[in-house]
Amino acid sequence: MNASPIRRCALITGGASGIGAALATRLAADGCRIVVADINADQARVVVAELPGTGHLALAMDVSSPESVEQAFENAEIEAGPVGILVNAAGVMLTERDGTPLRFWESGLARWETNMAINARGCLLTAAAYVRKRLIQPVAHGRIVLFSSVAAQTGGSKATFADYAASKAAVLGFMRAAARECAALGITVNAVSPGQIDTPMLRKNIPAGTPVDAGVIPLARFGEPADVAATIAFIVSADADFITGATFDVNGGQRMQ
Ligand SMILES: NC(=O)c1ccc[n+]([C@@H]2O[C@H](COP(=O)([O-])OP(=O)(O)OC[C@H]3O[C@@H](n4cnc5c(N)ncnc54)[C@H](O)[C@@H]3O)[C@@H](O)[C@H]2O)c1
Question: Any catalytic annotation for residue 130?
């Protein structure tokens, strides 16, 4: 008789909203124990309460803060056991100040620093915390999934995306280097690069009801959070054991704008 399979634990940053919340639902349905780690801990608890299955956990984590990331990982592993899957979905898209869209020569350093701190530094801090834990207690099929964006490839859909695009391009360089460094540890490191996905982040820039231009997105619709979640469900599965350092475009065919 086969022993029952070990239940994998997935820590999802930014899991309180949008793509991260859809992924929490998907991986919970696939049998994982989920830790939703988000700067918005109240909303993380709401998401966790609605997940299928039991044993899930909501935690406060600011991915830009070393102390917050370390503490959250500590708590996650005490309460939910070793994290096998890290998905760093937390992100911000700052393109304006007080409602005014700003080009890079008008925006100053604050917007750059915030985009970089959350979108890029957050990858370093969460991945490092994860790997340090796995060096002490290895897991089978170790996985890190990071979030880039089509904006890293195209420059973004409006002329105000420089800082965001730069932060998401930084994710790709980090991901490729981290994939090399983690290979000997049995941990794969990959990125998803979503196009325009229908979440609160998208709706800040593109109001509901805006028609989709098939010249920009050949599949002629905005993506659903579940589209990205399904791609990540594959990346974290054993079927993807031989894939590392890769970027998965989930963008309806979008290339140039
Ligand atoms: N929606 C899109 O069209 C799109 C396109 C390309 C890339 N992305 C990327 O996908 C990821 C998920 O975005 P989304 O569309 O679901 O956005 P969202 O705004 O719905 O969710 C982002 C989540 O990140 C959390 N968060 C923000 N700052 C944080 C911090 N410092 N620490 C921890 N959590 C923090 C928020 O509280 C929120 O729950 C982001 O990295 C985003 O840049 C989104």
Answer: no
Separation of alpha carbons 132 and 145, rounded Å: 16
pTM of this structure: 0.97
| Beta carbons within 10 angstroms of residue 68's beta carbon | 17
Structure tokens at 177: 């280097």
Which numeric CATH code is attached to 9-248? 3.40.50.720
Which pLDDT tens digit goes with each residue over 35-92?
Answer: 999 999 999 999 999 999 999 999 999 999 999 999 999 999 999 999 999 999 999 9
The domain locations on the chain are 9-248
Residue 161, Cβ neighbours under 10 Å: how many? 24
Pick the catalytic residue: 161, 164, 174, 248? 164
For a mutational test of ligand 1's pocket, the pick from 17, 42, 65, i.e. the residue with the most ligand atoms closer than 8 A to its C-beta, is 17
Q: How far apart are CA 53 and CA 230, in angstroms?
A: 19
Dihedral sign from CA coordinates of 22, 26, 27, 31: positive
Distance 90 CA to ligand 1 centre (A): 5
